[in-house]
């Protein structure tokens, strides 16, 4: 069922590429034994094509999923067929930690771009919680940060102008990638439709906002991916305060 | 599905749509154009006393086929 690869986790022997461990390191001082266990757990993974469900609303999944590569989202489909994206999941993010405790999914999780997804059984999650206190603390930290991000999104979607909303979202993603030590320059591969569903605006509106930000030099497009020429300028424009991401000061 | 292009003018900035949207028919394009105006207005209207946002739909041949305008008029009466 799963592919087994160590190459994906090790970057040519030069260092760790386990982004789950990188992310959790922001929430607790992990030790070698913690890293070793997390490396083992990330070895069971599957490649999932873009625009496919990882788990669907109503499922009672036996695995907790973590994103190793690509971008996924939490979403719900409204009765009129529109999709609302409530969270973007990037490498290092657990999709559904709650499932280990809550059971049935109250929303769906689907890929937006091609993803590599680690499958961790519920019993392995329980083992992390009881036998690896530093990892348990970091997972708690990650859950609390997820809540803080959700609060910030509520403010962002409700109160900011659309161009600032878009800019704010891009600043957040930039910092979240930086916090996992993403090796490449930030380049967001989401489509205008996916960004529109995330911000709760029409795709025509999203297109217009992207064009305006681009005209003002706040973002750039490269191979249809959004890049950020000057993050400080974009943060100033979107009135971005990174406190809610609760990252250690050095990152 | 045919492609429709949505050019938007909010009085401050004109954005020309290079990409377009694939939509089932003209009626769907009209609905899309109208639904984009209120949220767009929310972004730009607070700035002045008189403000209009408009969208023009072009078809694949580049012909303008539809226009919608949302205008705010705000004035003191005393």
TrEMBL record, chain B:
Q: Which residues form the DUF6894 domain?
A: 3-69
Q: Which domain of life is it from?
A: Bacteria
Q: Report the Pfam families cross-referenced here.
A: DUF6894
Give the protein name, as stated in the record.
Answer: DUF6894 domain-containing protein
Which organism encodes this protein? Paracoccus aestuariivivens
């Amino acid at each position: 069922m799963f592919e087994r690869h160590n190459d994906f986790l090790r970057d040519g022997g030069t260092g760790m590429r386990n982004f789950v461990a990188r992310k959790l390191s922001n929430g607790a001082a992990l030790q070698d034994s913690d890293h070793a266990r997390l490396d083992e757990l990330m070895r069971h993974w599957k490649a999932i094509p873009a625009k496919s469900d990882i788990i669907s609303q109503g499922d009672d999944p036996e695995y907790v999923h973590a994103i190793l590569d690509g971008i996924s989202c939490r979403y719900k489909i409204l009765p009129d067929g529109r999709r609302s994206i409530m969270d973007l999941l990037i490498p290092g993010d657990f999709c559904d930690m709650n499932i280990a405790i809550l059971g049935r999914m109250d929303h769906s999780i689907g890929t937006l771009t091609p993803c590599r997804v680690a499958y961790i059984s519920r019993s392995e999650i329980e083992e992390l919680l009881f036998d690896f206190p530093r990892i348990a603390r970091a997972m708690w930290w990650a859950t609390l940060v997820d809540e803080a991000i959700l609060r910030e999104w509520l403010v962002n979607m409700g109160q900011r102008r659309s161009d600032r909303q878009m800019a704010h979202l891009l600043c957040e993603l930039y910092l979240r990638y930086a916090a996992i030590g993403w090796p490449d320059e930030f380049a967001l591969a989401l489509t205008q439709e996916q960004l529109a569903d995330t911000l709760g605006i029409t795709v025509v509106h999203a297109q217009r906002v992207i064009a305006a930000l681009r005209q003002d030099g706040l973002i750039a497009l490269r191979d249809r991916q959004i890049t950020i020429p000057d993050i400080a300028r974009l943060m100033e424009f979107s009135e971005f305060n990174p406190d809610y991401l609760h990252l250690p000061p050095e990152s | 599905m045919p492609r429709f292009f949505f050019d938007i003018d909010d009085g401050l900035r004109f954005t020309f749509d290079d990409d377009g949207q694939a939509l089932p028919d003209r009626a769907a394009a009209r609905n899309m154009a109208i639904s984009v105006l209120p949220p767009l207005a929310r972004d730009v209207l607070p700035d002045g006393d008189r403000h209009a946002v408009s969208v023009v739909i072009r078809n694949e041949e580049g012909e303008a086929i539809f226009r919608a305008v949302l205008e705010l008029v705000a004035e003191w009466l005393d």
